[in-house]
Amino acid sequence: MSSLELKERVFKPVPAFRGKRRGAKAAPAAGSKKTEITVPKAIKRVIKVSDVIQVGELAKRMGIKAGEVIKKLFGLGIMATINQSVDIDAATLVAQDFGYEVERVGMEIVEEMLEETADISGNKVLRPPVVTVMGHVDHGKTSLLDAIKQTDVAAGEAGGITQHIGAYHVELDKGDLVFLDTPGHEAFTAMRARGAQVTDFVVLVVAADDGVMPQTVEAINHARAANVPIIVAVNKIDKPGANPDKVRQSLSEHGLQPEDWGGDTIFVNVSAKQRTGIKELLEMIILQAEVMQLMANPDKFAKGTIIEAKLDKGRGPVATVLVQEGTLKIGDPFVAGVHYGRVRAMLDDKGAKVLEAGPSMPVEVQGLPGVPQAGERFVVVSDEKKAKEIGTYRQMKQRETELSKSSKVSLEDLYNKIKEGEVKELGIIIKADVHGSVEALTESLQKLSTDAIKLKVLHGSVGAITETDVLLAAASNAIIIGFHVRPDVKVQALADEEGVDVRLYSIIYEVTEDVKKAMEGLLAPTIKEVVLGRAEIREIFSVPKIGNIGGCFVTDGKITRGAMIRLIRDGIVIHDGKPASLRRFKDDVKEVQSGYECGIGIENYNDIKTGDVIEAYIHEKIAAKL
């Protein structure tokens, strides 16, 4: 065979056959079936995206130029550069044009990286229960905790437990208990809002001489929202006027039926000061724990929850960790939220150093590079490299989320969420000026429940909208309805930060109409209230033939002459009207900015008091969202 023939034989079909071995099969003859173009497998044509993705990263995963992606986005009406992020909907439309599918993943992609040992039934052991004590102010929560601490058989004569890490471990003859030192309902709800389920059940403290109070009802609602059992401790039974049966009657109206009345709620009469009933209460807690069969596997990588964290001057960032699974040891690499590190030292609730901590054991951990948030998950991984990868990914995810933060459920987008199947139950928190309005609104809204969506009133009470209400709404993905009440500046700022929809009304039928229209997809709000500013009345001047003038200090924003104003007293709207006059010294002015004093007269209204707040607002027309 000549060299020319050999050259044609090797190079003519396709250039890829350069250097072909001898004895290989001959090239296909002309007219035979063409070589098929290799197509990526279906599994490789799926792009996993969280809430947002950078344009450059999307192009890289599809193997195309970023300019092509930018051109497609421009066609969709989205102006984006290579370093900007787009949401998952835009990424899906672009990927489809290039033959790719987009699969939505949240933190699951990170959790997949966390190594988990298989749960073997034989490795599971009983663990101590985690108990949170809640109740109204001055009903004896602290006294009860002090009485419980004195029953610790391990404390001996050392003076009891030094409670300095936010949780403590009590060793009893019949079993161990762990109590959380959660400062009020806010911390309890804030932790649950971050997905931390640390409490096994709640001990609700109610004073026998005071009965059920607003914060007691709040505690019941918070415990129910967390879906944990409640044990009621009727405290102060030694005081004159104590009536435990009245407490039982009142609580039964809130769904807590005592066992001796045919219900399923455990009631125990106690006196924290006289140390009576404490033993019975602890026995009931241990009995409840035995019924619940609380199990955990101590032989796997440790998992837990950050109860609290702080920056210590001498030791740096330290965090109280409640271990829930596995055993935490010195030297373990871990991830806590966006932070990662290695356990350098551990202290128990008595301040003693420990080498390892099993399930339901609270310990103070050193070795964090920063201060994590309470409620964050604390997870031990196989090595420090993996911890760094996960921590870095979460930091990037946090930055992306801050740039494109998804909102909570609101009335405007309720109908779309119902159609998409995202919302099956709409939680509502009602705050009103009188109890009758709360009852009327609760009854009216519950009647609106349908097969597609169930309306559930999580909490209803009298008074101004508080931070606790906002945190409960954020944790439960609920909306807040205020009837003749207002949130203050701090509460409104928290609601904006948490993405909680706060709706304010003055007519009951407007509430039911708005919710009904939202469920039917007909809600079209065209008027939006914009608060311009607030001023506090610090002095009252009586002017002949004019009436009372409020000597005010503008605390935030501005007060304008053409705005509407409302008079607020203790968070309750007293009057809604127009300003009759607005003056700085003797001069009439159009507006007064924050930090200045002024005189404000209210048209046809004189019943003003020192400490009242005047809120100026206007109504703006906005385009319908649906």
Explain how this protein is built:
The structure is a single chain. The chain has 16 helices and 34 strands. Strands 26, 27, 28, 29, 30, 31, 32, 33 and 34 form a 9-stranded antiparallel β-sheet that branches. The protein is α+β, with helices and mostly antiparallel strands and 626 residues long. It folds into 5 domains: 68 residues, Arc Repressor Mutant, subunit A; 168 residues, Rossmann fold (3-Layer(aba) Sandwich), CATH 3.40.50; 98 residues, Translation factors (Elongation Factor Tu (Ef-tu), domain 3, Beta Barrel); 110 residues, Rossmann fold, CATH 3.40.50.10050; 93 residues, Translation factors (Elongation Factor Tu (Ef-tu), domain 3). The longest helix has 20 residues.
Features:
single chain; 626 residues; alpha+beta; Arc Repressor Mutant, subunit A; Rossmann fold; Elongation Factor Tu (Ef-tu), domain 3; nine-stranded antiparallel sheet; 31% strand
